[in-house]
Amino acid sequence: MAFGLAACGRMDDPSLHPAFDAATAHPVPDKPLVPANPERNVFWGDLHIHTSLSTDAFMMGVRSLPDDAYRFTKGGEIEHGAGYGIRISRPLDFAAVTDHGEYLGVVRHRDPDLPLSARGLRTRLLNDSRVRNTLAFIRTNMGFSLQDIAGEGTEVISRAAWQQIIDAAERHYQPGVFTTFIGYEWSSMPDGFNLHRNVIYRGRQVPELPFSSVDSEDPRDLWTALESQRAKGMAVMAIPHNGNVSNGLMYDEVAFDGSALNADYAERRMRNEPVSEIFQVKGSSETHPQLSPDDPFAGFELYTRVLREEPTFSEPKGSYIRDALRRGMEFSHAEGFNPYRFGVIGSSDSHNASSSVEEDSYHGKLPIMDGSAAQRLGKAYLLPEELIGPYWSAAGLAAVWAEENTRESIFDAMVRKETYATSGPRITLRFFGGWDYEQDLPQRSDRIALAEKTGVPMGGDLKLPAGKTPRFAVWAAKDPQSGNLDRLQIIKGWVDESGRSHEHIFDVALSDEARRASDGSIAPVGNTVDVADASYRNTIGATQLAAVWEDPTFNPEQEAFYYTRVIEIPTPRWSTYDAKALGVSAPEPVSIQERAVSSAIWYQPEG
Hints:
The chain has helices at residues 2-6, 55-59, 66-73, 106-110, 115-118, 121-127, 130-142, 154-172, 219-231, 263-272, 321-335, 367-370, 373-376, 407-415, 447-453, 574-582; strands at residues 41-49, 78-79, 85-86, 94-97, 179-186, 197-201, 236-240, 275-280, 283-284, 343-346, 397-402, 419-422, 428-434, 455-457, 461-462, 471-477, 485-495, 501-510, 544-550, 560-568, 571-572, 591-592, 595-598, 601-603. The chain is an alpha+beta fold and 607 residues long. It folds into two domains: 45-187 and 195-242 and 256-271 and 344-419, TIM Barrel (Alpha-Beta Barrel), CATH 3.20.20; 427-603, no CATH class. The strands form five sheets. Strands 1, 4, 5, 6, 7, 11, 12, 15, 17, 18, 20, 23 and 24 form a 13-stranded mixed β-sheet that branches. Strand 2 (78-79) and strand 3 form a beta hairpin. Helix 3 (66-73) packs parallel to helix 8 (154-172) and helix 9 (219-231) crosses helix 10 (263-272). The N and C termini lie far apart (73 Å). InterPro entries: DUF3604, Pol/histidinol_Pase-like. It comes from Litorivivens lipolytica.
């Protein structure tokens, strides 16, 4: 058997070519200043990017630094850990390097003896057999312990790395053009269940060293640290992510130590965590088919394995955002407080100092795991597929409606939750709730002023005059570089008189209303994806969709939330592009329907 395995040759992998050449790399393009707009512009960003200052990133082949991350997000070309050039097709408007606060910079500084220290990943992938690459992968993941390198001098190293992050953010900040945020990731993993948060600062005033999960794994202790910093003038927030792999802990009905939630807990959580991350490389945290069996789009980009040595299924209840919003209303009804009244954003969680959100140029999360097409499709190793990230996603992006492209304006927009998330495409989406909206509101030139005169934007609280029924105005435009739009939906959640929550999905606008049958069923939009060619045609769907919708089920005595979801037509998944490059059959799913999801608008009865 060993002889047979040793004979396994390498696979030609076009995704590794051409090699990165600093002399010919694409420079950062010029980007114009965007004037301030009192009606707000949409700005696109990624608040979850790791570099080689993170332990896991350096171990697995990343050598890029915070300056590289900002060069990439501004549209320049940088070197991937596998030695080829990577570049985003359009610059972002804002970004944050959020390296893990635990042992920040220590592994890079001490450079332990790892396979990729002796021979780089590119050399191995181009020249070694599958069995040799597998052995290198196993040794990288199994032959290392932080305890072996931690010790005297660790804090000094982490302080220097933190200063490196701060300095890079200051160097690349261009108010009105490109915004950087100083931040880091607090990476609590009790029993291998994900309770991670990204900590984002509004300005340049930050602590001398991040509060990490080495200090405490309890989110309440993190909040205490942030509250102390806030008292010293440091505006700061924490952004939870990957509730989908928390095994129900992220949006639990009890606190970290199992104690009951109370009004103080709810107030502290919402003050410290106004938004949560809903899309990223480790899948979608919107909802799960077990939680939303009547939602035909609930199965989008699911990643359901907890992040342990022996991956097991993550409990959906308490792990997904829609369920959390419903649970929050149940708390409100029964206890008089709501710990889960937050908005949403997306971000990538790339560990390549990049934002790997484009399906046709996806370059993975961690180089030794999924840095090339052959690795991602299981052709470079002799390993079970679940160990090398084939189920990870090319996602997501944060969209923020802010007056100007500055730290203060974007941060404040996140505090008021005027935000939404996409799975990667730059779909423009606006959503307002109010009353007396006319049907032609989305087409009017003064629609923002009119919508705000008697209503609130996404993230707001809706207060209705007696005897009124709420109306919601929503309009969306496709990403010019992505698929047309299939439909606009409004998802409603409400709590009945017994305190039990419910949900319903309303399709408020279709690309072709003829698809809506008399019984209310809706025919699929169709699918133009050519799998062999990894292409699609925008001959179906719509470039824009809009609606003014009145809730036919509204009960003024019932608390409710409403958010909107925009669905694209099917387009090729990253794995289909990889399959074409390798000349192999594409794995399922061969196509996906990308989407945007807004922060909710809440209605609460008087009293």
